[in-house]
Amino acid sequence: MAKSSADDEELRRACEAAIEGTKQKIVMSIRVAKSRGIWGKSGKLGRHMAKPRVLALSMKSKGQRTKAFLRVMKYSTGGVLEPAKLYKLKHLSKVEVITNDPSGCTFTLGFDNLRSQSVAPPQWTMRNIDDRNRLLLCILNICKDVLGRLPKVVGIDVVEMALWAKENTSSVTTQSNQQDGPVATTVTESDLKVTVEKELVSQAEEEDMEALLGTYVMGIGEAEAFSERLKRELLALEAANVHAILESEPLVEEVLQGLEAASNCVDDMDEWLGIFNVKLRHMREDIESIETRNNKLEMQSVNNKALIEELDKLLERLRVPSEYAACLTGGPFDEARMLQNVEACEWLTGALRGLEVPNLDSTYANMRAVKEKRAELEKLKATFVRRASEFLRNYFASLVDFMISDKSYFSQRGQLKRPDHADLRYKCRTYARLLQHLKSLDKSCLGPLRKAYCSSLNLLLRREAREFANELRASTKASRNPTVWLEASTGGSQSGNSADTSAVSDAYAKMLTIFIPLLVDESSFFAHFMCFEVPALVPPGGVANGNKSGSYDDTNDDDLGIMDIDDNDSKAGKTSADLQSLNESLQDLLDGIQGRLLCCSGLGIQD
């Protein structure tokens, strides 16, 4: 048989050199093959890159304490052993021989302190069974002697190990490095083995059993002698039994009394069990009733939970945000706060539409809370519309009063000034979006607002026409004789009057050229600003104002920079009622302007 690597002194010295400086002593070193293979059904091991390794058992003494280690050595590129892994034998919990290996030379070592227990431990394969038994017995001996316990052993026949330990009693030479140098010591193989037979039967017990089996002679050699022997033993046993029965009569009576007492106890127990059975039946019925009620309660709980969720959603729809309520009931209408007011109007419009039947389930529409919330929103709407209408009426009047009181807006002596309403329209555009929302909330509130706007703007237009005409009359120095214009109109040939007639005609044409486009633009702006659903008063690209651009100002005053709240309503068609209302409002807007233009056109009539 080939020499085992456990007896290789050169390998031991290489291992000691690899762990030099650790103060550990090599007990055994042996070559193995490391793999993580899987045994297939064919019985052959499919190793994946089996790697040569050396397993070395080392010990370290510190006072009275001794520590044992299992070191894994690997070969470097130069063929020199170097430490790869270190395991403490105190954490060794399992030694398992792979049963699928037909040779029995493959085993695994399980440690309880590994970080990842889900990863399979490596498999170690020996050259033969002797090397496997030698290494495992050495490990088990160290665990028993040093640690005082044995790990769990799986897949190893204990009897086979014991027989192998008895047969292999050859000595193994080990070395220990002392300070004075290496000293060779002889250790028998029995010192390195676990005496497995001690775990089953001790040596003294085994000898006693052999002596007992040796002294007992059954005498089966002669059948008749054996039969006679059995008869005598049977008679002796029967006699002994009869004598024992006669001697045990008091005991029998005592046993009978005990049986009677036990029978009474059994009867009582049967009665108790009957009572308990009745009680358990009643309890079962109660439990069934409780389960039925519990199921109903669970169903009711689920329904209540769903109802609460629906009610929470409904309450969220009915809730009025505090910031919107403050804006709708008492917030200011200055330019800085218009964004908040518009957002509040949008929310109020959406909330009112959300409480209508198409947008709200009909089952919710008849609820008292929904009706009360709808009434509350209607009050908010009425309050806001009233406050906004009052503010806009006062705002239009104050804006026009300010322009009338400022003479810089009108023509002055020696300075003929074209009327400019750009600032007026810019300030009105600030509240255009508010008017759109007022129309969607309460269309009836637009009538008083339109009248207030028309009356205020009419005063401004009449004042501008008067001031412009006065300054134009003063600059042209036309004759105050009313017949001059009449004679000129009939085609008179007087040369003196022709010059005056021409000057008056030019002044009148100039005034019409300025004021007619202004009035048309103001009418168009009014129609869009006051949310009339009518077509544009001046077609795009038209020249009603007398210039090529088709607009009085450089910018299009009709574009308010807003979008209709309901595009479908604006595209549905313009009704005759809106046209009639617009015509009435334009009459209020332009009331008296025609007379101003005629009286100031050069007829010499003072207004």
TrEMBL record:
Coiled-coil annotated spans: 280-317
Any Gene Ontology biological process: exocytosis
Residue ranges annotated for the Exocyst complex component Sec3 PIP2-binding N-terminal domain, each copy included: 48-146
SMART domains linked to this entry: Sec3-PIP2_bind
A GO cellular component annotation in the UniProt record: exocyst
Domain of life from the UniProt record: Eukaryota
Record's keyword terms, sorted: Coiled coil
Protein name stated in the entry: Exocyst complex component sec3A isoform 2
Lineage, broadest ranks: Eukaryota, Viridiplantae, Streptophyta, Embryophyta, Tracheophyta
